[in-house]
Amino acid sequence: MLHERLSEIYDNVLRRNPGEIEFHQAVREVLESIGPVLGKHPEYAESKIIERICEPERQIIFRVPWEDDRGEVQINRGFRVEFNSALGPYKGGLRFHPSVYLGIVKFLGFEQIFKNSLTGLPIGGGKGGSDFDPKGRSRHEIMRFCQSFMTEIYRHIGEYTDVPAGDIGVGQREIGYLFGQYKRITNRYESGVITGKGLSYGGAQVRTEATGYGCAFFVDEMLKARGTSFEGKRVVVSGSGNVAVYTIEKVQQLGGTVIACSDSSGYVVDDKGIDLALLKQVKQVERRRMATYAERRGGNATFVPGASVWEVPCEVAMPSATQNEITGRDAETLVRNGCIAVGEGANMPTTPEGIRIFEEVGVAFGPGKAANAGGVATSALEMQQNASRDSWTFEFSESRLRQIMRDIHARCLQTADEYGMPGDYVAGANIDGFKRVADAMLALGLI
Ligand code: NDP
Q1: Which of 189, 219, 246 is the last residue before a domain boundary?
Q2: Which of 64, 188, 189, 436 has the most other CB atoms within 10 Å of its CB?
Q3: What phi and psi, each to the nearest 5 degrees, are found at residue 143?
């Protein structure tokens, strides 16, 4: 239920942003949490902070023309939504996926504001991407697309303005092509303009692993808060991209057994535990589908095409693919099968109905804003190293990440307690993330 004033604001968001259903969902979730804050802080309502937060500071939509390997011209659409810069330069990834449209970029950018605030680091919120589909494209086609994308977007970004990174379909290879084109156009080696770079050209240790590792650390904290651990737990991870692979790696190091993972073609069950070296070879080196993993693993693993990975019984679920991938029905199945904790590596992977079911039965539920904030936090550490022309060791960087995740976990719990909702990580994350941005906006005047 929404507080009366928030309900008016939400209706206005619906009216002003027609058809952008993912954006509506993301806004509603935050508004549902922050009602109690308005009672304690009337100054936020007086200054229309919430209305302002729901309206991006700037939205850029542009044409991305490029030539495929047959010499045919292709046209895609590019986006960058610069949502909020009260805490620092806009910061958030780029997603290349055919489903991308303004509503997806705005939901991701909106969530990013609060996530970045939760890290306690000086970064604002933004997000971008394109409806370009990298699947089946050659390396040269990907490079030409990235160069064309950067040829427009370079004028809007900068280390003090807006700092993109990767997301679905944008990994280190794409970041390299994007950064190379920025450098060529501007004649500046401005390392801090983009994060997720390779180690040989200004990247930071642990950035590649950070989102997955961070999510595993966050779930580890949730389990510890309930007097248990990953030890002996069966874990299901969806996806098999950047976030999923490094979630699996860290969960295994923390004593859990990851028994299933997926891609958009289906899922693999591997009761003895996913063979990470084989998964990396199949997905990262050869860029093949999950069925190949099962074939190479012989009798140990089964590939199940076109089905939901959430039907595999587990104690811990870590959705790491895409938005709205755990429906109410999936949540019911997970609960019935004995799931006690969910950590969102992906952004908004659980539908509102799914969240309600988890919360009703007391499953420890770590929302993406908190649980996957390790990626952007480590991006901020990459910016810090770029600014000081320094590079930290893997061990030091990982210890910083672990501490950041512990702090986020503690702040979520503390804030949820303070507002009378003990154990509610969704409320804790939304309120804590919101307050820091709101206070900065008040202090900065009418921005
Ligand atoms: P990748 O592109 O590396 O991997 C995405 C994975 O999810 C692939 O296995 C892909 O399968 C699967 N997937 C994507 N879209 C769909 C879909 N519509 N249906 C089913 N499966 C799908 O992306 P990342 O690992 O970087 O991102 C995964 C999630 O984590 C996203 O929600 C992203 O926003 C979030 N995230 C990422 C961060 C990062 O640092 N990279 C930081 C914070 C959050 P297939 O290959 O078959 O498409």
Answers
A1: 189
A2: 64
A3: -65, -45
pLDDT score of 384: 97
Low-confidence ranges of the chain (pLDDT < 50): none
Q: Is 127 a catalytic residue?
A: yes
Cβ of 243 closer than 6 Å to ligand 1, yes or no, is: yes
What's the CATH number where 155 sits?
3.40.50.10860
Domain span including residue 86: 56-189
Burial 399-437 (b: 16+ CB within 10 A, else e): ebbbebbeebbebbbebbeebebebbbbbbbbbbbbbbb
Find the catalytic residue in 91, 106, 115, 127.
127
DSSP label of 131: S
For the segment 247-269, what is each residue's pLDDT rounded down to a tens digit? 999 999 999 999 999 999 999 99
Query: Of the residues 303, 338, 371, which one is the last residue of a structural domain?
Result: 371
- Give the model's pLDDT for residue 5: 86
Distances from the Cα of 347 to the Cαs of 109, 260, 350, 375, 409, in angstroms? 11, 20, 9, 12, 17
Q: Which of 123, 130, 167 to mutate to test the pocket of ligand 1 (most atoms within 8 A of CB)?
A: 167
